[in-house]
Amino acid sequence: MESFSFLAITFLFLLHSITTSIAQTTTAPAPAGPLNITAVLEKAGQFNTLIRLMKSTQIADQINNQLNNSNTGITIFAPTDNAFSSLPPGTLNSLTDQQKVSLIQFHVIPTLITMSQFQTVSNPLRTQAGNTNNGQFPLNVTSAGNQVNISTGVVNTTVSNSLYSDSKLAVYQVDRVLLPLAIFGSAAPAPAPGPASSKEKKKPKAAADEPTASPKDAADASSGFRLHWIISEMWILSIVIGSFFWLHL
């Protein structure tokens, strides 16, 4: 009887141990931490300038908030530190705060695009920088095999590496900074001058436009001068003759 009780207790202990072990084995793993774009870039290395700009413009916080509170996903083109170093000296310092925001937003597409989907996307891609319909932020891609070419109207480059990809985020390395037309495009040509205002003062006529005397008027003037000269001579002659006769009386 005692043996039976001992065996029963042992059986119950083993059953409890097995049940506990199975329960621990089938417990769901702890959820992963929230996605963080700067952590992704820091792990990849060589993106310190991009990280600094994302933090100073607060775009990093916006991206993280969208990644963890939306199902649309995000695609990011990440220029390397060498890409920023290749810009003309003083380029970033010459930008206003709003232009820096637009520059970084131009590298962010508010949808998830995988490498294979680049072959079927419609151009221009819509970025977070603004509406592409006004021609200020055009971003066009073409894909041939595994190569993805990018054009902004100012620079052309290619996707050189896929840094990160999951169901919400895709990060692609590019070796040139994507410069938008709205900030780095050539200045618009000056407008053509309009018609002169009716209130504008009239220019004086040139000397060539002044009326000139006709040949007939010139001849008449010459004849009058000669007649006046003859009369004057006859008057003087009459005075001389009169004086001669007066002296001999």
UniProtKB/TrEMBL annotation:
Keywords: Cell membrane, Glycoprotein, GPI-anchor, Lipoprotein, Membrane, Proteoglycan, Signal, Transmembrane, Transmembrane helix
Protein name (record): FAS1 domain-containing protein
GO cellular component: plasma membrane; side of membrane
Subcellular location: Cell membrane
Membrane topology: Lipid-anchor; GPI-anchor
Membership in a protein family: Belongs to the fasciclin-like AGP family.
Annotated signal peptide: 1-23
Its job: May be a cell surface adhesion protein.
Region (Disordered): 189-220
Chief localization: membrane
All residue ranges annotated as the FAS1 domain in the record: 34-178
Pfam assignment, any one: Fasciclin
Biological process annotations from GO: plant-type secondary cell wall biogenesis
Transmembrane annotation, as ranges: 227-247
Keyword Disulfide bond included in the entry's annotation: no
